[in-house]
Amino acid sequence: MFDNAPCAEFMSEDSLSFFSDFSAFLLHQEKVKEEPVLVSLAFWLRSANLTQIAQKYTKNQHEPLGSVFQIAPNNIDTLFFYSLTLGILTGNKVVVRLGNTASPIASLLIEQFIEYCAKSHYQAANRLALVSYPRNDDISGSLVAHADGIVVWGGDATVNHFKTLKTKNSCKNLYFPDRYSIALLGEIAKSDIQKAAKGFITDVQSFSQQACASPRVVVWLPNVTTRTKQLFWSVVNEHWGNTQLTTAEQVDRQVYIQYLVMRGQTQALSSFDDFDVIDVSHIQQQDIELHCGNYIFVQNHLSSLHDLNALLQPKLQGISYYSVSDEERLEVQSLAGGEHIRRWSLLGQSLQFSHVWDGVDMVSELSN
Predict the structure, then answer these.
(1) What is d(CA 182, CA 339) in angstroms, rounded to the nearest whole number?
(2) Which residues of 155-166 are buried (b: 16+ CB within 10 A; e: fewer)?
(3) Which residue, 69, 57, 62, 314, is CA-closest to 173?
(4) For strand 128-132 and strand 93-98, is the pairing parallel, antiparallel, or unpaired?
(5) If residue 36 lies in a helix (H) or strand (E), which one and from where to where?
(6) In whole angstroms, what is the distance from residue 43 CA to residue 33 CA?
(7) What pLDDT, in 10s, does the model give residues 208-265?
(8) Rounded mean pLDDT of the chain?
(9) How far apart are alpha carbons 343 and 358 in whole angstroms?
(10) Any idea what the Cα angle at residue 210 is, between residues 313 and 36, rounded to 5°?
């Protein structure tokens, strides 16, 4: 596929410049400027950030794996590009299987990248292939069998399926299955409500609340007043803007809401213009597993931090927080046994990609 193109040096200047120049290219496109998730990607790709990542590693102590095969997720428009970038920066040859039905944002990103690569003089472009094909185990099996590294973004079913395909004994497998995240909020000062509400919107709106890092459950600390909760949701509603869901997504929302009502733990349902907040007396693991996203927020007011135990499960990816003290965060971490909270993020920063994702240092894993 690569015409015997060789791997590159770990964090080579050619690779770093290839992506930092693409950052500048993206930011000069008017269509891109209208899409916040693409602007965020371009910001992450800027030279200063990539250089900062590179400087965390001793260059002569790392070398590429060889060929890396990556499965792009269907629900997060830009996630595949972040891990693609890390695969190329670590010197590998990278094949990315794209979904068959790319979203408008993903399509725009791919279109811009292809245009950029056609004009690029960088050698890094020769180590990258974007492919798309219907589900076919013969094709996937061949790509997996020849890979030195595999990155699978997807639900549990996708991950479990790719685990059945035969790989090299030395192949490094990075699997990112279903995860969920929650928001933990304390008593928010009135002067901070606007900032907290806008940060919350940033965390949940970009991908219709489908991202693993987007909170689906909002948990309030014991000291929070009813007035603060009411004001928070009022300000969120004020700044929400227009969001549109498909008919199928709207049906999914109603089915999930009816499920919670029938479970018998629902205390109140507050319907705002484009989202719903459902107060429940107790949250079960199944409530999270069945959650469809699409701007439904399950809300619970803690009697004590120990009530969080039901949510501190292995599938928990991270906690977004605001007005939570260091001592309270340490107590929550202690309740989780230090194992299940992979990431803490201030409201507004949950979707910011890090090269250490879901507890995995992707730079180290994509190199030897």
Answers:
(1) 16
(2) eeebbebbeebe
(3) 69
(4) parallel
(5) helix 36-44
(6) 11
(7) 888 889 999 999 999 999 999 999 999 999 999 888 888 998 999 999 999 998 988 8
(8) 92
(9) 7
(10) 125
- Quick one: pLDDT at residue 28? 95
How does strand 316-322 pair with strand 172-176? unpaired
State both tokens at 255. 């089915």
Rounded CA-CA distance 339/345 in Å is: 16
Task: Give residue 304's pLDDT.
Answer: 92
Of 73, 130, 138, nearest to 99 by C-alpha is 73
Q: How many angstroms separate the CA atoms of 163 and 58, rounded?
A: 32
DSSP state of 113: H
Q: In what order do the strands lie in the sheet with 266-271?
A: 266-271, 276-280, 296-301, 215-220, 180-185, 316-322, 343-346
One DSSP character per residue, 289-343 reads HT---SSEEEEEE-SSGGGGGGG--TTEEEEEEES--HHHHHHHHHHTTTTS--E
* Cβ-proximal residues to 367 (8 Å cutoff; 6+ apart), any chain: 10, 62, 63, 64, 65, 90, 91, 92
pLDDT in tens, 48-61: 999 999 999 998 89
Strand 149-153 relative to strand 360-361: parallel, antiparallel, unpaired?
A: unpaired
| DSSP tag of 143 | H
In the three-class reduction of DSSP (H, G, I as helix; E, B as strand; rest coil), residue 166 is classed as: coil
User: Is pTM beyond 0.85 here?
Assistant: yes
